[in-house]
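Work Package 3 (structural annotation) set out to generate three-dimensional models for the target panel prioritized at the project kickoff. During this period the team completed the workflow that converts sequence records into discrete structure tokens, so that structures can be stored uniformly alongside our sequence database. As a representative example, we reproduce one entry of 436 residues exactly as it appears in the project archive.
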Amino acid sequence: MRTVKGLIVILILVLSFLVTGCLSKEISDQELSSKLEQLSNSELNSLVAESKAGVPEEMSKSYQASNAKVLEKAQEEFKKRNQAPILTEIGGKKIDENSKLSFIVSAADTDGDLLTYTAESLPTGAGFNVETKTFSWKPGYGQAGIYQVVFKVSDGFQEDSEIVTISVGKGNRVPVLSFMGNKEVKENELLSFVLSADDPDGDQVTYSVDNLPSGATLVNGVFTWTPGYNQAGTYQLKFKASDESLEDTQVVIIKVENVNRAPLFDDVEDKKITEGSLLSFKVSATDPDKDNLFYSATNLPSGATLSKNGEFSWIPLPGKAGAYQINLKVSDGAEKDTVVVTITVDKLVCTTLKDCPGGYWCDTVKTECLAYDFNALYHSCDTSEASTAEECGIISVAYWSNPQLNLCGDDVPIVVVDSCSGIPKLWYCYLKASCS
């Protein structure tokens, strides 16, 4: 599209050539150049612009030359006068991987020409906006290195450029801890696991932990712990993997399960007792977990007892002399401990009735206490009742009126039960015991 100013220039040139009478012949290159030199910068600029737009045929007539030649010579003249644009110095740039670099390119042109900006050898991922003249780049990991980017500015005829060196340093990425998950362990059992982490940059990784329980260790990434008794509970540990600049963390919950420990008997000594005497003692035990304890026994002799509190009681009667092994047990309801106690019962030696317990008489010949059994005693009964007693047999002595008396040949009333009627009858018998 022609401009008014351009048309004026053309008309002036046409008039000039009419006056000189040069329209009738082809102008030489030298003459064409000479005439173009007479134009002002603005006129020359307009002529170049019109020629590029394909100005009309009057142009070739005015100059007595083809449009192509006019344009060629006009451009040559324009280049002689034109001053190149000058880029403002950019300078080298430094940045690390995964960081953003952005800057604006600018230039000055003394002729006030319209300038265009370009960038060459852009790195992968980099961009240059020609409208805003802005370079931007965020180099990714793995792009560390040296890059040279060529920035140019042009006014259409001349240009200026600068090679900008961009140094991309190695960026540091966070090491990543492998998943460990929560852990469970019982008291007095070993818990051990190895920490591992991946560092994308290949940096050396060190491991640490917060809130380390008593007795636990973390050495070179190896966690080891044998929780002691009384350490049952839940522990929250914060593990860390660091490359000295950045770190990754992971919280692991360790649940320590309580272990029930068996109670232990305190020392229990063997016992010794004489027939007819009371044997009483209390056993005890210790439970590390402070549980309630219960006592029991097997192989208890007849008449012996053991309470749940561990209290033992026994009166071994005459005739029970010997050794007895009693199995004692203590339990906390889950675990137990056992111990064997030997009780030695010595024979009771008697010389009088007073030496024997109630219900027993003293055989002074054998010096031993014997139970009142009319089949074993030396006795004679009232003749009126003798036949009945012999026929029915005396089953047991229920009561002896005065068992501790030392009687010799006296009538002693004894209540007995016979096998005939089952009804208690009073028998008068003579004890054939020696007198002291």
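The first helix runs from residue 4 to 20.
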